[in-house]
Amino acid sequence: LLHAQGLQRLQSLCMDLRHIPTVREKGWYLALMAPNIKGPNFAWLDPSRLYCHPQGLQDCVADLLRPFQGDPIDMVAGIDAMGFILGAAAAAALQKGFLAIRKAGHLCVETVTQPYTDYTGREKVLEVRSDAILPGLRVLLVDQWIETGGTMRAAIQLVEQLGGVVAAPHPCPTGVAAICIEDSEGGRWIQERYKCSHCVPPSLQPRFSRHQ
């Protein structure tokens, strides 16, 4: 019986990953994400199953890039670690290069660093290689999620420290993209200053910001 239940659950998951709704409205793929069952030290939702769904991933990337259609983007940068997935997919879709913004201690070349506080309140440091961004380079910054905004703000500071452009007075040449930008103090700070894109429909934004 337990074996049969386990097999049924696996088959259900496989069917879920194959299913494509007849009408694909913006954010339909958000239902593929799984809730946190491991406690407060983990993110409240896990988008990794979304990335396993071929159409879900394609539509997520397309929704993220739609506001930047026609904008001059020179490079896509993704933030360690889950931002690498969406960032690399966005770079491939745009046919642009991809820059990895790493947690400190992983790069064996000359870097610049920026300390920050992540969504759990832990002090960390981001780093990026110092030779990848030339003055005036227009960078689209991508992460999986913006909760308190600390990680994205540190990435913005790194790009701008090297002379890259994340956004400028209107019209913005490029900006910031994430599956969700929560209505937090840090999230609002970013949205007020940079051109932003996310996948959460307005009707669901209050629930996502409250982690419901």
UniProtKB/TrEMBL annotation:
| Top-tier EC class | transferase
- Coarsely, its chief localization is cytoplasm
The alphabetical list of record keywords is: Cytoplasm, Glycosyltransferase, Purine salvage, Transferase
Catalyzed chemical reaction(s): AMP + diphosphate = 5-phospho-alpha-D-ribose 1-diphosphate + adenine
- Which terms does the record give in the GO molecular function aspect? adenine phosphoribosyltransferase activity
Q: Does the keyword Cytoplasm apply?
A: yes
Q: What is its pathway? A: Purine metabolism; AMP biosynthesis via salvage pathway; AMP from adenine: step 1/1
Q: Does the keyword Glycosyltransferase apply?
A: yes
Spell out the Pfam families in the cross-references: Pribosyltran
- Top-rank taxon of the source lineage equals Eukaryota
What Gene3D superfamilies does UniProt report for this protein, alphabetically?
A: 3.40.50.2020
Q: Which residue ranges does the record assign to the Phosphoribosyltransferase domain?
A: 72-163
- Write out the similarity annotation: Belongs to the purine/pyrimidine phosphoribosyltransferase family.
Q: How is this protein organized at the quaternary level?
A: Homodimer.
The identity of this protein, by name, is adenine phosphoribosyltransferase
Species in which this protein is naturally found: Atlantisia rogersi
State the encoding gene: Apt1
